[in-house]
Structures are given as structure tokens and as C-alpha cells.
Amino acid sequence: MPTEHPIIAILGGTGKEGTGLALRWATAGYKILIGSRQVDKAKVTADRINNLVGKNNVLGLANQDAARQAEICVLTVLYSAHRKALESVKDVLHGKILVDTTSRVDFRDPRPPEPPCAAQEAQDLLGRSVRVVAAFQNVPASSLILNIGQPIDADILVCSDDVPAAKQVILLAQAAGMCGYYAGVLANAIVVEDLTSILISLNKHYGVKNASIKVMGISGER
Q1: According to the 3-state scheme, what is the secondary structure of the chain?
Q2: Is-contact 80 108, C-beta < 8 A?
Q3: Scanning 18, 70, 71, 154, which has its CA 20 to 30 A from the CA of 7?
Q4: Cα–Cα distance for residue pair 76/32, rounded to 1 Å
Q5: In a domain? residue 1
Q6: Measured over all CA atoms, what is the biggest interatomic distance in the chain, rounded to whole angstroms?
């Protein structure tokens, strides 16, 4: 399917966050490849998204096939599956952008994780031929599926050692209805993960689900 947008593979994309991001990007006209270890599950998720957005630009595949065909890959798995998922697609990621959304925080006992951040672990495992970007760790999955096509009242902190790659991910954030900001090198993503523990704590204390991050005092693009 011809498109001016890069093809996006969402690896482990059958969960809440992956599905929410897919819904928003598919609505914005991106071709989306839903990846999963279970192809049947990926196909069911893709069909559901296509029905919801009224288009046919989402396809379900095995993780490796999705990663091979995409230009940008977005990893949306639990940390317990993080390394195994990366190892399964390592050979087909050379020259591509990998967006790591992993936040190693336990909802039941939210505490800041120890460094290095999950995205740094991914970079170390994959090597410098893959441009790793950390992003979307703080956006509530419940916010992604509400009012599709409308902006989300949340900002995205984007960390990477590769600024041009980070800028591409900022464009993806904008396409999904959010503002993205370059927040420095990949190592800074440990702080972004830490913020997840604070947001979960806020949600629990105030009885809400959508606590999020907003950046103030910055105008214009750089």
C-alpha cells in the first residue's frame, strides 16, 4: 500500500499500549504491522483495529516478519519479555529505528528502577547499527484509546543518542495527538522511567487513571 509515511511495526503490539498507539497511527494514515509471538493473535488485533478506524492499513504478523518489513519498530512488551523479544528480531533491525516504550515499574509497588534504563539495555544488545529511541513510557494506555483522532493532554519525553532519530519519533508523537520533546541522550531515559513510578502513585492516591506529563516554558521547534 503506497504511503508517504514510514511503515511502523509494533512489536508485542497486541497489548493495551501497542493497540492504542496502532489505533492512533492507523487513523493518521500510517501503515501498521502488528507483531506478536502468536500470529493468530496479531491478526485478530489487526482486524479489530481496521474495523475501528474504517481503513485497511493494519496487518498482523509474527514479530520478526513485522520488524523485517518496517522502517520504524516500536517495542511495547513487558520488561519480563524485553530481552527475549529483542533477541528474536535483532538480525532484522540493522539500520532501523527502534522505539523502546518499556518502563520497568511494578504497578503493585511503584518504585524508581535501577539504571541502566531499558532502552540503554536494548542499545547495548542491538549495537550501534540500530538507532534506539526511548519514548512513550509515560503516556497512559487508557488515554490512547479515548477520542481517537483528538489530541491527548500529555507530552512525550524522547531520549536518544541519535538526534535525527529522536526527531522522527517526535513526529510520530505528533501524529498520535501528543507533543514530543527531545529530552537528551539515551541514558536520560532512566529519569523518564522513574517518572512512571510517580504517575502510578498519583493515579493510586487520587483515584484516577490518566496522570501524565506536561512540558511548560518551551515554544517552537528545534
Answers
A1: CCCCCCCEEEECCCCHHHHHHHHHHHHCCCCEEEEECCHHHHHHHHHHHHHHHCCCCEEEEEHHHHHHHCCEEEECCCHHHHHHHHHHHHHHCCCCEEEECCCCCCCCCCCCCCCCCHHHHHHHHHCCCCEEEECCCCCCHHHHCCCCCCCCCCEEEEECCCHHHHHHHHHHHHHCCCEEEECCCHHHHHHHHHHHHHHHHHHHHHCCCCCCCCCCCCCCCC
A2: no
A3: 154
A4: 14
A5: no
A6: 47
User: Tell me, what amino acid is at 32?
Assistant: I
The answer to whether position 122 is within a domain reads yes
- Provide the percentage of residues in the chain whose pLDDT is more than 70: 97
Q: Are 95 and 129 in contact (CB under 8 A)?
A: yes
- Closest C-alpha to 138, from 176, 103, 110: 103
The domain in which residue 67 lies consists of 8-206
* 113 within a domain of the structure (yes/no): yes
Gap between the Cα atoms of 101 and 115, Å rounded: 16
φ/ψ of residue 197, rounded to 5: -65, -35
Reported as a single tens digit per residue, the pLDDT across 149-200 is 899 999 999 999 999 999 999 999 999 999 999 999 999 999 999 999 999 9
Q: Identify the pLDDT of residue 1.
A: 39
Q: How far is CA 180 from the centre of its chain?
A: 12
Give buried/exposed letters for 140-150 (b at 16+ CB in 10 A, else e): bbebbbeebee
Tell me the pLDDT tens digit for each residue of 59-84.
Answer: 999 999 999 999 999 999 999 999 99
In total, how many domains does the chain have? 1
